[in-house]
Design brief:
alpha/beta, Enolase-like, domain 1, TIM Barrel, 2 domains, 4-stranded mixed beta sheet, 12 helices, about 15% strand
């Protein structure tokens, strides 16, 4: 079963472009993968197109061989970035093909499922309104009413994190900005009640002292903090570990960890209470499974990062269905109105859970005509809030 064609689609999502990849074989079977990453999605698109040419003629059944060959042959480009996203997309699509060829869901090929339903937490639930504390509280209540039992948001996003021309204030907060962040968290916590977990995102844009200070001040609010996300960049696992030792909030990192090799440094440093690999960045289904097994040896749970397109959601669910150390999976609560229109079946979201399909492969196909109706923005506005 030889790979005969690879097609890449850059599609406009609500947060940023999706990058979807279709892999076809000479047997007539095809599979779908996703490489969504940002900013600079045209770089991801180009990487997928290049890697797509490299894999032409390869045996689609040799999933691990193809992953390893691509990673080793192109390692001079680095361990992360567009290359790993392209490998991720190809890997996901090959698992989809293999499942179809064997008439089995991907999670069955991974060893079988631990669970029928994948518990989700909601992100991007807060995009309507004026971003005031009252607006956040109202939208939080609406999200919980829809069945979600955990939320995530970045209360520091209003600072813009130095994404403009002036970087002089990057990574630090004024007193009024600190107060606003605390007011937002307090309003959301009051709206959803003391039992519902809330994850606090920082996007690694607070400097060390500020990250520690805000963690202590957030802890004083006495809310159910699911985790404090990325208090420092993954280049500094020892610094993350130091912050973790100095605060009481659980620490979650991993969305920027590309492959098991980067994840191991974080685990060795005891820098994370929860690890959150992103299936479109870390190397696809194959690598997420390996990262999860590695994390299991350190007694660390997995919570897939997933502010991406629908194939990422589906593939992540298959991957974590077959691991013992799963915690929760991220879900874009508010997304493009046509998300389900591009799928052969609507995403099976019920009461804050993804219900695993029993269909072969990933269990979903993509309508390419719908993708073509929504081309990606190749030059997004400079002030587009990628980091939210």
């Amino acid at each position: 079963m030889k790979i005969s064609n690879v097609t890449t689609y850059l599609v406009e999502g609500i947060k940023y472009n999706w990058t979807l990849v279709k892999v076809e074989t000479d047997s007539g079977l095809h599979g779908w993968g996703e490489a969504t990453n940002w900013p600079g999605s045209p770089l991801i698109e180009a990487a997928c197109q290049h890697v797509g040419k490299v894999v032409l003629g390869m045996d689609a059944r040799r999933i691990d061989y193809i992953w390893t060959k691509l990673y080793r042959d192109m390692h001079w480009l680095g361990q992360a970035g567009p290359l790993l996203s392209a490998i991720s997309a190809i890997d996901i699509a090959l698992w989809d093909i293999k499942g179809k060829a064997l008439d089995a869901p991907v999670y069955e090929l991974l060893g079988g499922k631990y669970r029928d339903r994948i518990q989700l937490y909601a992100n991007y639930w807060f995009i309507a309104g004026d971003h005031s504390a009252a607006s956040y509280a109202r939208q939080a209540r609406e999200t919980v009413a829809a069945g979600f039992t955990a939320l995530k948001f970045d209360p520091f996003a209003h600072v813009h994190y130095g994404y403009g021309d002036d970087l002089s204030d990057t990574n630090q907060l004024r007193a009024d900005q600190k107060r606003l962040a605390l007011d937002l968290v307090a309003a959301v916590a009051e709206a959803v009640g003391p039992d519902l977990p809330i994850a606090i995102e920082t996007h690694a844009f607070l400097n060390g002292p500020t990250a520690v200070e805000m963690a202590h001040r957030l802890a004083e609010l006495d809310f159910n903090c699911m985790w404090y996300e990325e208090p420092a960049l993954p280049e500094y696992p020892e610094a993350i570990a130091d912050i973790r030792r100095r605060i009481t909030l659980p620490v979650c990192v991993g969305e920027r960890l590309h492959s098991r090799y980067m994840a191991k440094r974080v685990l060795d440093a005891a820098a994370a209470d929860v690890l959150m690999p992103d299936i479109t960045r870390c190397g696809g289904i194959s690598e997420m499974r390996k990262i999860a097994t590695l994390a299991e040896a350190y007694n660390v749970p997995i919570a897939p990062h997933n502010p991406n397109g629908p194939i990422s959601t589906i593939a992540s669910a298959h991957a974590v269905a077959a691991i013992p150390n799963f915690f929760r999976q991220e879900f874009m609560f508010k997304d493009v109105a046509w998300r389900d229109e591009c799928l052969s079946h609507p995403l099976p979201i019920e009461n804050g859970h993804f219900v695993l399909p029993e269909r072969s492969g990933l269990g979903f196909d993509i309508d390419e005509a719908v993708l073509l109706q929504h081309p990606g923005l190749r030059n997004p506005p400079r002030d587009r809030a990628y980091y939210i």
